[in-house]
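G., the chain you wanted modeled:
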Amino acid sequence: MDKIIGLTKEEASLQLKKSGYNEIQDPDPASPIKLIARQLKNNYIIYLLFFASLVSFITGETITGYTIVLVILMVIFLTFIQEYRAEKAIKSLKQMITPTTVVVRDGKEQSILSKELVSNDIVVLRTGDRIPADCIIIEDVNLQVNESVLTGESKEIAKSEKGNLYMGTFVVAGRCIAQVTHTGMATSFGKIVRLVSEAEKDLPLQTKINTITRYMVITAITISLLTSVLILLRSGPLSVEIVTGVLILAIALAVSAFPEGLPVVMMTTLAVGTSRMAKKNAIVNRMSVVETLGETTVICADKTGTITTGEMTVKKIFADELLFDVSGTGFKADGEFLLKGKSVDILKFSTLRTLITASVLCSDTRIVRTGEDDEYKVLGSPTEGALLVMAAKVGVFLEDIKHTRKSEVPFDSKRKLMSVLCNIDSRNLVFSKGAPEILLRKCKYLLEKGKKIPLSQKKEKGILDLNTKLAQDSYRTLAIAYKEVASAGNNYSENDLVFLGIVGMEDPPREEVREALETCWAAGIQVKMITGDYKETAVAVAREIGLEGAVLTGEEMDKMTDEEISRIIGGVAIIARVRPEHKLRIVKILKQNGENVTMTGDGVNDAPALKEAHVGVAMGKNGTDVSRSAADLTLKDDNFATIVEAIREGRTIFNNIRKFVSYQLSCNFAELSILLVGVLLSPVLGWQVPLLLALQILFMNLVTDDLPALTLALNKSSKDVMLDPPKKKPQILNKPLFAISVFTGLVMATFTLGTYYVVFNILGQPQEVARTAALLSLILLEIANAFNFRSFRQRVLTRSPFTNIYLFYASVVSILATILIIYSPILNSVFHTVTVSAIVWLITVLISLLFVVIFDILKSFGKKNNYLKLA
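Predicted structure as tokens:
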């Protein structure tokens, strides 16, 4: 077929301006108006407050009514700001993984963002690629496509020339060149999106939050009603004014105890946490995975590209009974070929020249210059990229070899081979590459000094011994072979090949892996390294990174039952010569053993294992679109250490939600207890009930309950978050944490009641001063409590107040707002407060400090005696 030119850069640019980006638009974008409407629909707090304001206006309490309206507006505003930020953060996450497509423009293959595709673009699609737009096939080789995203059927469909390809489907075998026919919303996939919008499902966290909310609301309403009845009984003859005041107080109590901030905080925590993950190169594909990440007990990590750098480099070549060294690292073609330490001219070694040519021709990968000298970007397999860069070091490039590819048998994980049939100078030549132990079985001859000689058992054993030695030195090996056939038809055999040599590639471990492994072990997480490489190669890499444990191979697994593997899998750290079906089996066995499994994968056939795992992790740089679609998490840098950081953030997110819930529960319990106990003690101590008024409670709810509480969602990871073993099916509010929250609330209530008693009964101050002092005391205690709940273990007095700068600012705002309502004459009349003396401030500040000291002592005691297993 004639050389394909494709669109020019100018044509593509004009078409893009005309048709727009190749994107699927959100059918239901969250606009500001929709966010506000959603609040009015779902936030029952607003209805309660509206009813309270209505009652106030009807009964002539206009100041109270207007104040409650102001509170309603502030609740709507604050909730809107949080939800809007969360929506923006989630939207930005979706844009962080930018799929690319190989196109032919101006006669050259180049990688562009998939969203920049336009109609009539020529695209090159290979195994593992997601089809980026609707296309028609121009040319294909054994092309098979999975169209389950459209049809629901997961079977592979064979495609041929002039066949249609649809956006969102996947190439699972073969390759093709195709022409784009429709992009964006004009594609078949886009039309489906217009017709139906996927229903949102509640996250597991949301279900837990809903349960907690339900119990808190029931408790709040019960105590509110009980307190209101007791106040009415204590009030003597009833009047409209008394009943109205008690009704508004009951509503204020219900509002105070109603955890309206929980859903917002949950989304804020998730958004902040996932944004932090994104900054550390971990992109969350599914929000539900965040909770599961923190529960990981086993990480099954690919060796190549995840534990190692993924930049394969050919370092050794065995050909002509000689072992050549190749200098240089990564995808930079600045090395040379060496023999016994001296540079060599490859023109003097005919077998080596043939091996290099075969390596270039037997490949579906391309390399393109990045703009820097001799630096290449690999479009395709890193392993094949290493072979192409090796050839580039001696000036051998695919475009310089005059040939026609007639057919190919793509690489298959079961066969571990790839072959192509090319016509070169009227000769039909088959080139094959694959696992040495597999390819050698298919070789009958070997090429030695340009001559084809029989491959004896002795020579075969020597080659296999060398291969084992290279594997032991942590090299990944590939064998290269060829043969000449009479016909250029598709029915050629891969037997009777001529062995050319072995290529040894090195992929060094990442520097940060050892530290990440130590973090995993401290956190009680097992790590299992999985690789398709030889056992010896895997052991050598494991030794370098400090990973110790038993070794299991795919061949051994094939001979064992699931029960036998289940008994030993706990002690296995290295699993070698693994195929994708082995990965799936490993995940299932680990899950049956009660483990929470995080599995990495990058290939088409890894998708089943990624879906089966609790957390599937795909590679952003070298992974296929198929694996990324199946995964819950995508690593932009393909780095094992990033998985560990994602687990850290997963634990932090869950802990932050627990801290917020615990804080709110303790504050709500304190407020309810103060009012209830105050009513019970009032006949004995002569107190005027209620101790706190409705607007004062609403003020606290807005300024000191919600504001500092929201900032707890922004807590960064603490040092000890990775020092505990993972908890299976952890609860947001377990029994110990519930007990601590209730106890904390009781302490705050006791101290607040104590303040009222000291000011009124001992110092002899008026009821208004005692009430204001109690309000001030509770506000300062709740601020101190927020700092207390920054960590379940670390003491307040040993941590900087700036570890969560947002909490510090929120506390300052709360204190300034409190000073305003105490010392502003206008606000005095609104909130029924009075100015207080320095002695009152001294009492309330000392009580707050005493509160902090008590809980710091309890944390120290609990840590030493292993009582606090909460973080």
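Confidence is low (pLDDT under 50) at residues 196-202, 865-871.

Shout if anything looks off.
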